[in-house]
Design brief:
- The protein is of the alpha/beta class.
- The relative contact order is 0.24.
- The protein has a seven-stranded mixed β-sheet, sandwiched between helices.
- The longest helix is centred in the last third of the chain and has 20 residues.
- It has six helices and seven strands, in the order E-H-E-H-E-H-E-H-H-E-H-E-E.
- Helix 5 packs parallel to helix 6.
């Protein structure tokens, strides 16, 4: 059995299969599983999406809701476990819309990932492959997402892109 990397970064487009791929890696380890959730259900559609993700994951997960501070949740993990942080994109949206300091929040998240006592798999969306957004808020978000994705990729031992459910190793080997 291969040694599990300390930080695996998985990114792809919306509904590309990245969360299911990440969940499969986590489940295959046999370790106690923690899901750090960043989504907030502001409407029925998002509530249904969250519920579907819970069903998709199945039993055996401890869920920690952390829409604003996943770094704190990472600092409290058991070394024997494994964490899935899903997703950085929703977390960044929460930070941006709450008018919090994006740079400080990103620095804190990256430091917590580096210090986490157990392996972590981080899921994020790739948002830079489309058209240039037509408004300042969307451009600010796209730029911040691109920056945090680059920083996560630099820090991770393994980086995987998922397209149409297919994993593609960008850095390191597929887990």
């Amino acid at each position: 059995m291969k040694k599990l990397q300390n930080l695996i970064f998985i990114l792809g487009g919306a509904s590309s299969g990245k969360s299911a791929y990440a969940e499969g890696i986590v489940t295959s380890t046999g370790r106690p599983r923690t899901y750090i959730a960043t989504a907030q259900a502001f409407d029925a559609e998002m509530k249904a999406k969250i519920d579907a993700h819970i069903i998709q994951r199945g039993a055996g997960w401890t869920t920690v809701d952390a829409p604003f501070d996943p770094a704190d949740a990472l600092r409290r993990q058991d070394p024997a476990g494994i964490v899935l942080l899903d997703c950085v994109t929703l977390w960044l949206t929460n930070i941006l819309l709450a008018d919090r300091n994006i740079s400080a929040a990103c620095d804190d998240l990256l430091a917590a990932l580096a210090a986490c006592p157990c392996p972590v798999i981080v899921v994020s969306n790739e948002v830079g492959m489309g058209i240039v957004p037509d408004n300042a808020l969307s451009r600010r978000f796209r730029n911040a997402q691109g920056q945090i994705n680059r920083r996560l990729a630099a820090q991770a031992e393994t980086v995987v892109a998922v397209m149409a459910g297919l994993p593609i190793a960008l850095k390191g080997d597929l887990p």
